[in-house]
Design a protein that fits this description.
2 copies of one chain form a homodimer. With about 350 residues, chain A is α/β, with parallel strands linked by helices. The first copy, chain A, is built from 12 helices and 12 strands. Chain A starts with 7 loop residues before the first helix and ends in a 14-residue tail after the last strand. Chain A binds a DNA duplex (30 and 30 nucleotides) through α2 and α4.
Chain lengths: ~350, ~350
DNA sequence: ATTAAGAATACAATCGATTGTATTTTTTTA
DNA sequence: TAAAAAAATACAATCGATTGTATTCTTAAT
């Protein structure tokens, strides 16, 4: 209740020995006899000693804490990535400070500052949609704090990244739409400031071209990919001259927005327009028709990013060379694209 | 790059003054002249000084950090609560350490220990499903760390809580089912170790009784309310002798599991069985038919919990009396319960 | 011009643990 | 048994900022 904070000095005094010996015993140093150690451990237990992590951190200038910056915690992909990060970090004895940029550049700068000031041992982050220049991202590196980018990265050469092969994911998704017989495929794209959306766009484009279809800019609808953006795009799609029969959305949320709008207008999915999303969020399996999408496995990404980061932290003096891990995407085929009869020759 | 860590002593040396003056200037103390302050600020800027938060924390024995423990970060309700917590905390100058108990008691005990050892200024938590005895929850209090429970609380008298009126929420939901003409309403309940599920159960029961319907234990299906639990319960429901025409689930996830199962068995929702959930998660609006549910507004809860906690932190010596905030639930009526013709007299 | 009052700054201890070096104690060897 | 080697423990500085007390420097009052 009161100020009953027991320090190593209290233990030392109680046993009439030096505090340095207590410290070493508590850290199980070989410089203390087993017998003494046991006396100290018993006394520490008895007195209810708890190491003051702050003092320890200051002395060792290590916090055993990782900083995480994501655009928005409540987005499923990010919350599942965080779950993976937290679990891996916890097992390795690290705490995790979590921050959200809310897609604001200013806030992102601020957060990096704060994490540096708090002397986190490393940072895992996914950049905001507003992030175009990367000067502030160097801040952590300059202070010797290793950083791993996941999902939304940027093209600074010496960076560590854990990414999905977004190009392949959207190539496959588009290819799948074509295989289902779609001739005119629209694309709901995200802000091109993010490489990720560039890659998804390129995958879409190349799949069209490689299948002998023309790429048409007027079938691309860029937005921030919120639910209402998807709905608005769907509205525009119905208004175009072209008979659009497929939509490849760069995320699930916009795809769902589009589907809801189309369903409201009695457009048959997939018969009239087939739809694919990207992320494999929890709603994609439940919506009707269920949404074909590309699995992004946030938890696995988080785990890999954390492992990579901890590896970098532990080898800091040796300056381990940076690494980029690229995960293989997998297409989850569901009803929203099932145009063809699966078994034509019964 | 190198060990270019500038301390207040470096600034002091550069200006040939004392480090205590530098410290005071940087904290804008009235004990330093404006002129001196400006010299110091300029120099600090010039030398790229950054306060060592660790040292400061140690001296002040305050970390400006809040600890958060939730069962699972990727559950929508919790991730949105965390979003609310993070935002409020950030504005007030606090960092947030986030941990997940994964519904394990052992891990929960561990995490509290860790947070206490890290000298967080306060804790916000939602207990795990395994938590039956509350001894470990006193740990933080004994160390003088104020704690606020949200959503999943426990009945220790002196606690701070931010809760939904779960009783009323489920009373209203059940009442709504009755108003729609349901005669035999089943309940998918959660572990009764959590007061929250007791309250939801009681609301259900009392609504039945107050409307003159009998409460029947055999219509209550308790589980951990995962999606498959909902599906299993639905299976059992179809197997009972009673003609069940309504389901009140204590959360959305199980409700959705049940709906998916019922849809697979060609049971018409709401005509044959009406369904309501609890939480208003993102999928509830998208599933077909859309799910009637009780809004739980995680973000608001998070915000309120944080404000309450910070209030408690700032008034610690005075021992502000504990507070319990109870939010009013609101029923979101959707298609899954729309049995009655809304306008019988056209 | 001298002293008291007040403002500005310097001194020094402190937060609690860690760690290189010095000293004491024990064990081994000649 | 004395000296050398090895083991165990004690001493003391340090991490960087904060803060109560002491000192110096201004300004005001007599």
């Amino acid at each position: 209740m009161q100020n009953n904070t027991i320090t190593i000095h209290d233990i030392a005094a109680a046993l009439k020995i030096d505090s340095s010996t207590v410290s070493r015993a508590l850290n199980n140093s070989p410089r203390v006899t087993q017998k003494t150690k046991e006396r100290i451990w018993a006394k520490a237990e008895e007195m209810g000693y708890q190491r003051n992590v702050l003092a320890s951190n200051l002395r060792k200038s290590k916090t055993n804490t990782l900083g995480i910056i994501v655009p928005r915690i409540s987005r499923y992909f990010f919350s599942s990535a965080i779950a993976g990060i937290e679990e891996t970090a916890f097992e390795a004895g690290y705490n995790v400070i979590i921050c959200q940029s809310l897609e604001k550049l200013e806030r992102e700068k601020n957060l990096i500052q704060t994490l540096v000031a708090n002397r986190v041992d490393g940072i895992i982050m996914s950049i905001s949609m507003e992030t175009m220049d990367y000067d502030h991202l160097e801040g952590a590196k300059k202070n010797g704090i290793p950083t791993v980018f996941f999902d939304r990265h940027c093209d600074i050469p010496g960076n560590n990244n854990v990414l999905l092969d977004d190009y392949k994911g959207s190539f496959d998704a588009t290819q799948h739409l074509i295989a289902q017989g779609c001739k005119n495929i629209a694309h709901l794209g995200g802000p091109k400031s993010l490489l990720l959306y560039q890659n998804r766009f390129n995958g879409y484009k190349d799949a069209l071209v490689q299948n002998g279809y023309p790429f048409r800019q007027e079938l691309v609808f860029d937005s921030r990919l919120m639910e209402k953006d998807g709905a608005e795009a769907a509205q525009k799609i119905l208004g175009t001259n072209t008979e659009i029969d497929g939509i490849f959305s760069a995320n699930d949320v916009a795809a769902i927005g589009a589907m809801q709008y189309l369903k409201g207008r009695n457009v048959k999915i997939p018969e009239e327009i087939a739809v694919t999303g990207f992320s494999n969020g929890p709603t994609s399996a439940v919506i009707e028709p269920s949404l074909t999408t590309v699995d992004q496995s946030g938890e696995k990404m988080g785990k890999l990013a954390t492992e990579l980061l901890i590896k970098q932290i532990n080898s800091k003096p040796k300056t381990l060379s940076p690494e980029t891990i690229i995960l293989e995407p997998s297409l989850i085929e569901r009803e929203s694209t099932r145009k063809k009869i699966t078994n034509p020759t019964k």
